[in-house]
Design goal:
- The protein is α+β, with helices and mostly antiparallel strands.
- The chain has 3 helices and 4 strands.
- 21% of the residues are buried.
- It has a 4-stranded antiparallel beta sheet with strand order 1-2-3-4.
- The two termini are 15 Å apart.
- GO terms for molecular function: zinc ion binding.
């Protein structure tokens, strides 16, 4: 979790944000290193603001049970102080 938090701060930024009703759609630009080369990966985070539920198309949480840097960045942008 600490690594994901660090990566959210250092390698990721919000590229775009759109909103429909109580749902926010984030496009996150993630400058990750793969095979010793930096790549710009784009991920999508959907944040349901009424429940503070968020999901990301990287599926890190579903695969290994750790909240991904992309969701952490989106929740931080929304001033969510506790992980739901």
């Amino acid at each position: 979790m600490q690594i994901e938090l660090y990566e959210a701060c250092v390698r990721c930024h919000i590229s775009s944000l759109s909103e429909k009703d109580d749902v926010k759609f984030y496009t996150i630009k993630d400058k990750s290193m793969t095979h010793n080369v930096f790549e710009n990966l784009m991920t999508q985070v959907v944040h349901y603001t009424t429940t503070d539920f968020a999901e990301c198309n990287c599926k890190n949480f579903q695969r290994i049970g750790i909240l991904c840097r992309h969701i952490l960045l989106a929740l931080n942008a929304e001033d969510v102080n506790e992980i739901p």
